[in-house]
Amino acid sequence: MAELTDAVEATRTVPLGERDDLRVALRATMIKRIEHLEAFDVVFDLFFGDVRPAPASATAAAAGDDAFAALSDEGLAGVLRDAVLAGNRPVLRRISAAAVDRYAEMEPGRPVAGRAYLFRVLRRLDLENLVAEDPGGSGALADRLRRDRIEATVAYVQSAVELEIRRRLVADRGAEAVARLVRPPLHDAIGFMNASSAEIAAMRRGIAPLVRKLGLRLARQKRRGRPGRLDFRRTIRSALSTGGTPVQLRFKPPAKPKPELIVIADVSGSVATFARFTLQLLYAMRLQFRRIRTFAFIDDLVEVTDVLANSVTAEQAFATITADPRLIWLDGRSDYGHALETFDARYASSALTGTATVLILGDGRNNYRAAQEDRLRLLARRVAHVFWLNPERQVNWDTGDSAIHLYAPYCERVVECADLAQLRDFADRLV
């Protein structure tokens, strides 16, 4: 409600006919996290998709558009270069519209193909060469500032082309049809299993505040914990200095039972992204447990507790873990059965206790090898809880080489953790 109130107040101070000013005002009042900017821009363009900025003179605008349309490809490229170097954004908007007319090859009624249209236009405009051809770059501050301004202007041209394509798609197909295909997912709704490198980078930016928030919340819970039992001896000793008036009660430190956490993580290529983010969250939660022991496997299992403890960041720890050659025993393909067998033989006697919670991280795809689910059954008998976090969507469980149905009966819960939102929800429940 506070953001909406601020947004309404902001619209009273900017002219509603100025699209760019309105966009900036709503951005400033409604968006709190940088990773939400792209989604906001798409929604803004869809909502106002059939609204063009009102030109100062319709006759002048039409004459300018006709002039750009009459130019050859080389002539249009020259005007574009001059406008970029001059930072002339009104002209750049009209050039962007002319470029969409000329290069996008949009046909009314065809299925929405916004990215294809955008690729065609940007390929013909060749904006990267505008930056490369800039005569600056000697290292002087003025040259650096000039280059930064040109790069910002080129980025503006790209966004102007995308906006023009989106506006025309909305006018032709309607906002709802376009929204279903061009709306970008928020970082916490991106699936771990099929995220691109750019989406993984966005997720990394998104998990950092989540880790800090979780760590601060756990620290506050620890500080605000209920006091322990009354310490009669300390209370009387404190009261001697005041003759017992007033009496200040003294309490013993609370003896909070801290469970042990055992993490068994598949770090093979198919689920490596999920394992990385999960270990990052567990790194923030480590003070909530008496002890955390972490084991990683691909087709063989090794303990990596010391790696996590001695690494400066969780990212550094994960890089060290995945580079360990001991994780590969046979062919480097996930083997849950052999990992459970190795854990039972090497570590179960020292790691498992009656208060321990076991987290297994992985998709359960065993490459058609022996599942050895009896090993998990024996493990579950010796600990308090067993949770399995599966990064696959539940509709894909038990398909192909998935053995999750063999392991599920021995887990307290098998939890779908396909994106950051689901992983965050599980972490909240765990602590």
UniProtKB/TrEMBL annotation:
InterPro entries associated with the record: UCP010256, Uncharacterised_CoxE
Protein's name in the database: VWA domain-containing protein
Organism in which the protein naturally occurs: Paractinoplanes rhizophilus
